[in-house]
Design brief:
The structure holds 2 protein chains of 2 kinds.
Chain A: H1 8-20, H2 26-49, H3 53-67, H4 69-82, H5 88-119, H6 124-144, H7 150-161, H8 168-196, H9 207-237
Helix pairs in contact in A: 1-2, 1-3, 2-3, 5-6, 5-9, 6-7, 7-8, 7-9, 8-9
Chain B: H1 10-24, E1 29-30, H2 32-43, H3 51-63, E2 67-71, H4 74-80, E3 86-90, H5 92-104
Helix pairs in contact in B: 1-2, 1-5
């Protein structure tokens, strides 16, 4: 490596842009990275010129990175959505996969979670495995079908899998977070749509996330049912 | 809330307003940081627009045909010892979109009111 190490804010900004552009087409990725590099350089020149020094510049750069993170991630979703298959046959294959995931695989996992919770005397091991499977499916769907909404489903799945037996608060937290996330994503996508035209970013893509919410509700109900059965047994044992 | 087809969000309208003013001041082409700086000064804001917000808005304006962009010649950038710039320019469509935005929301955009109508 030659040359001096770039200042910390530059490394943070360039690290972040490298992260969220990873895996995108080369021209898209390089354009965004070059544009940010230029911005950072111009910003530093401006800060050096107005005599307020590097400290203020550092804070401003980090602030601009952090405040723009949500938009950066959304931009990535848009780029990925734009890179979806354009031929009719490819689009049909993608739609079929989406349908299978949303109406066959997802519900099957959700029903499996419910039945396991309801019927088994020691369900949590298997439930954990099923929730893990749900997350894996969310990742797979994201890869095969498209990213928008499924990232939300993935995050939700992780939140749901994190809900341990008896920890209702965490389960509720996962549910609430996922609902807020979905509402936010839908509102954001709706605010973007006029300039993009009817891109159909939201509609079918959220269905797996909806299944995730369903799984959470079912888990919650099963937890209540289990508590109720325990209390009943306790009373009858007295 | 869903916005109307073709409507501009406040940041997009503000970027167009600044771009039009720069063009009228003899600087038709601008790069990302330049417009962020102009926007902060004209709106008397404390902070510069975040990277992600700024470049996503510029890209959307470009996709809608309200701005165009080109990368400057790398030789010029190399001669000046800096990274090359992506230069944006407002289009006639952009000026018309701004005029419509000003008509519907007078007084809510930076710069001199009605500049795009002249």
């Amino acid at each position: 490596m030659n040359g001096p190490r770039p200042p910390l804010p530059v490394r943070v900004a360039e690290g972040w842009v490298a992260f969220y552009t990873r895996g995108l087409p080369r021209e898209v990725r390089d354009a965004r990275r070059d544009e940010l590099r230029s911005d950072l350089w111009e910003h530093l020149q401006h800060a050096s010129g107005d005599g307020r020094g590097r400290g203020r510049w550092s804070i401003q750069v980090i602030g601009r990175v952090v405040r723009g993170m949500a938009d950066d991630l959304w931009w990535r979703f848009e780029q990925q959505a734009a890179g979806r298959p354009r031929t009719e046959a490819a689009a049909r294959r993608r739609d079929l996969l989406a349908w299978l995931f949303d109406w066959v695989v997802g519900p099957a996992v959700a029903i499996g979670v419910l039945l396991t919770a309801w019927l088994s005397t020691s369900p949590f091991r298997l439930m954990g495995a099923l929730l893990g499977l749900f997350v894996a499916l969310a990742v797979l769907r994201m890869k095969l079908v498209g990213p928008v909404g499924n990232e939300a489903a993935l995050m939700f799945g992780v939140a749901a899998a994190d809900a341990e037996p008896g920890r209702l608060l965490r389960l509720w937290g996962g549910l609430l977070a996922s609902v807020l996330l979905l509402v936010g994503i839908r509102a954001y996508a709706a605010s973007l749509s006029p300039l993009r035209g009817p891109a159909g970013l939201v509609g079918p893509a959220v269905s797996l996330a909806s299944i995730g919410i369903l799984v959470s509700v079912l888990m919650l109900l099963s937890e209540y049912a289990r508590r109720w059965r325990r209390q009943r047994r306790g009373r009858s044992g007295e | 809330m869903r916005r109307k087809q073709g409507a501009l969000v406040p940041l997009e309208a503000a970027l167009l307003a600044v771009a039009v003013e720069l063009a009228k001041a003899g600087r038709p082409q601008f790069h990302g940081f330049a417009i962020a700086k102009e926007l902060r000064e004209r709106e008397a804001a404390r902070r510069l627009t975040a990277h992600g917000t700024l470049y996503k808005a510029l890209e959307r304006l470009e996709r809608a045909g309200l701005l165009t962009s080109r990368w400057e010649d790398p030789v010029i950038a190399a001669d000046e010892g800096r990274p090359r710039r992506r230069l944006y320019q407002v289009t006639a469509l952009g000026e018309r979109a701004l005029a419509r935005a000003r008509a519907t929301r007078p007084g809510h955009l930076p710069g001199r009111p009605g500049i795009a109508d002249t």
